[in-house]
Design brief:
The protein is an alpha/beta fold and 162 residues long. The protein has one domain: Glutaredoxin (3-Layer(aba) Sandwich). It has a five-stranded mixed sheet with strand order 5-4-3-6-7. A two-stranded antiparallel sheet has the order 1-2. Strands 8-9 form a two-stranded antiparallel ribbon. The two termini are 17 Å apart.
Length: 162
């Protein structure tokens, strides 16, 4: 069952495509984190990542963004490069240990983990409303002004299931 809002985020250690190990909660350093579970063959992920990248532009510090790949290292690194991911890409394949803990219902699935290590928000698939809500909640966590990262009328659909 997918981790629900209010529950303690499951602890994990994953290797990133950069060769570093990432630990939840230790690597969070008392900051909130957004975890994005994705697959390189996911068309909905292709649609979502430009908006997810806008989170980094809107809030350049005070939090972490980790993309959790359900694919092998080579294809994960290639996908990250093609989607301009400037943040850590963590490798969950082939055992899917973290995916089993978080149980994302689709890709992409995003989890906002607050500074206390609890799941504060989750969304699956692509929804501009959900991405803007995630942006608002993240801004509250880090004391920033909320930014609209997924504007209506930009030529992209408002919703697409994962």
């Amino acid at each position: 069952m997918t981790l629900e809002v209010g529950t303690l985020a499951s602890h994990f250690t994953l290797l990133g495509t950069d060769g570093q190990e990432y630990f939840l909660p230790q690597s969070m350093e008392g900051r909130p984190a957004v975890l994005v579970f994705f697959k390189t063959t996911c068309g909905t992920c292709d649609l979502a990542f430009p908006y997810i990248n806008r989170l980094v532009e809107a809030y350049p510090e005070g939090w972490h963004l980790w993309a959790v790949s359900q694919d092998p290292p080579d294809s994960s690194a290639e996908y990250a490069a093609s989607h301009a991911m400037s943040y850590p890409v963590l490798l969950d394949a082939p055992a899917y240990a973290v995916s089993r803990l978080y149980d994302p219902p689709a890709t992409p699935t995003l989890f906002l983990v607050d500074r206390r290590g609890r799941v504060a928000y989750t969304t699956a698939g692509f929804s501009k409303d959900d991405l803007n809500e995630l942006s608002r909640l993240l801004a509250m966590e880090i004391g920033a002004e909320p930014a609209v990262i997924a504007p209506a009328g930009d030529g992209k659909p408002d919703f697409k299931p994962g």
